[in-house]
Design a protein that fits this description.
Layout lengths: L3 E4 L3 H9 L4 E3 L14 H18 L7 E12 L2 E3 L5 H11 L3 E13 L5 E11 L4 H10 L19 E5 L2 H5 L3 H10 L6
Parallel strand pairs: 1-2, 1-3
Antiparallel strand pairs: 3-4, 3-5, 5-6, 6-7
Length: 194
C-alpha cells in the first residue's frame, strides 16, 4: 500500500490509521483553524480540511505528493461551533453546555490523490447524547486533562465515553476520522488497498 500523508498532528487520527494498517506519515500544517465567517459548520470543516491539504502540498515544492489526507472536527450545539477549549475553565463551561443535551460532531475530510487533481471533499456528522453531569463530574473530568486539544472538550474513546448515552452515526467520526467514509473515498479514488 502507498503511504498516506496525514495533514494533522492528532494522536487519535494517527492511532486510527495505525489500527486499520494504513501506512502514513504525519505532517501537521501550521494554519489557523478558524473560519468563523463561514456560518455553515459542515462547510467550515470542509474548508479547513482543504486548507490543511493545500498547506502540506505547498511544503513539497519539488515532489508531487500523493494521497494527502486533511481533516477538521468541530462540535456544534444549538447552531454554534464549540472549538477546542483554551483552558480548564472553558472546558468546564463547554461540558456544562453539553450536559444532558444532544450535540453534533462534524468532521470535514479531504483526500487528494495526486497534486493537480481535484480534492475529494466530504463532511460527516454524528449526533451524540450526553448524560447529565453533576458539577463534581465536570470538575473531575476537567482535572483528568482529557479535554485538552479536542473539540467539544471530551474524548469518547477515553473517560469521556462514561457520559455518552447514545450516538447516531459514525463512532470513529467522534474520535476524529470517520473510517467508513474514509474507506469509501479510498475506493472511489482507486487507492491500492491490497
Amino acid at each position: 500500500m502507498e503511504t498516506i500523508i496525514l495533514a494533522s498532528g492528532s494522536p487519535r487520527r494517527q492511532e486510527l490509521l495505525a489500527k486499520v494498517r494504513i501506512p502514513f506519515k504525519a505532517f501537521p500544517p501550521n494554519i489557523p483553524e478558524e473560519l468563523d465567517h463561514i456560518p455553515d459548520i459542515s462547510e467550515r470543516v470542509r474548508q479547513i480540511a482543504l486548507k490543511k491539504i493545500e498547506a502540506v502540498v505547498a511544503g513539497f515544492p519539488q515532489d508531487s505528493p500523493r494521497w494527502v489526507l486533511g481533516l477538521d472536527t468541530l462540535v456544534e450545539l444549538d447552531g454554534q461551533a464549540l472549538a477546542k477549549p483554551t483552558g480548564p475553565e472553558q472546558a468546564a463551561e463547554i461540558l456544562k453546555k453539553l450536559s444532558g443535551r444532544v450535540h453534533r460532531v462534524y468532521t470535514g475530510i479531504g483526500l487528494l490523490p495526486v497534486r493537480g487533481a481535484q480534492v475529494d471533499l466530504r463532511c460527516v456528522a454524528t449526533e451524540v447524547k450526553f448524560a447529565a453531569m453533576t458539577s463534581q463530574e465536570v470538575e473531575a473530568y476537567v482535572e483528568s486533562g482529557e479535554w485538552s486539544g479536542v473539540a467539544g472538550a471530551y474524548r469518547i474513546q477515553e473517560r469521556g465515553g462514561f457520559f455518552v448515552e447514545w450516538i447516531r452515526g459514525s463512532y470513529s467520526n467522534v474520535v476524529g476520522l470517520p473510517l467508513e467514509t474514509f474507506y469509501g473515498m479510498l475506493k472511489h479514488n482507486q487507492y491500492p488497498l491490497a
